[in-house]
């Protein structure tokens, strides 16, 4: 069953990782997709592989003109129905070692860009008669860790932006939700530094689901939110974290 038949989507950061998995799944389910990214070679190669169902757009999510071009590319495929604000960067450093420039760089890519994307798609989605906006936050938008002051701040901010936008836009048939991945086996999540097996043994062994997540497992949550199956869901958080937010299994406790 093609759950997105006839829909048109923009996926930012769509050239690799969770974005790529989302693009592939959307196309599999009948959507036509604009792959927005600054990774030109990877993004264009993905679009070429997927054929007429996908086009690549060189999208710097901090530049309004690039957003306008991405929306134009989407509307050339049909009425714009879905936006996935997936693009993001990670900065790991103590607060003392994080400069104001470091902090603002993360804010621009992770937070300001989502605001810009939402603002840019409102009128096209109103014209289409409905829409679904999915902001990819993080488990670090529900709790945090040392060394993630900039990253976690932006991922928490996406929750507030999501709720405010949901309140404003629901009257137009536009739903806005956030997705909160935990540890996922992507470049940002340590792929290329540790093997999947080593990650499972060293990092994830005490998680409720004791393994690293896969990009497709997050993409499946995003797919649901993009479909009409989620027609009464807006302004809320959907978590795909292997139980991280619930808590860890303590080896010294019963049933662990």
UniProtKB/TrEMBL annotation:
Source lineage: Bacteria, Pseudomonadati, Pseudomonadota, Gammaproteobacteria, Cellvibrionales
Protein family: Belongs to the short-chain dehydrogenases/reductases (SDR) family.
Q: Mention one GO biological process in which this protein takes part, according to its record.
A: steroid metabolic process
| PANTHER family listed in its UniProt record | 3-OXOACYL-(ACYL-CARRIER-PROTEIN) REDUCTASE (AFU_ORTHOLOGUE AFUA_6G11210) (PTHR43180), NAD(P)-BINDING ROSSMANN-FOLD SUPERFAMILY PROTEIN (PTHR43180:SF28)
Concerning Pfam families, the annotation shows: adh_short_C2 (PF13561)
Q: Residue ranges of the Ketoreductase domain?
A: 7-188
Keywords linked to the UniProt accession: Lipid metabolism, NAD, Oxidoreductase, Steroid metabolism
GO molecular function per UniProt: oxidoreductase activity
PROSITE patterns for this protein = ADH_SHORT
- Name of the protein in question: 3-oxoacyl-ACP reductase
Q: Does the keyword Oxidoreductase apply?
A: yes
Question: Cross-referenced InterPro entries, in alphabetical order?
Answer: KR_dom, NAD(P)-bd_dom_sf, Sc_DH/Rdtase_CS, SDR_fam
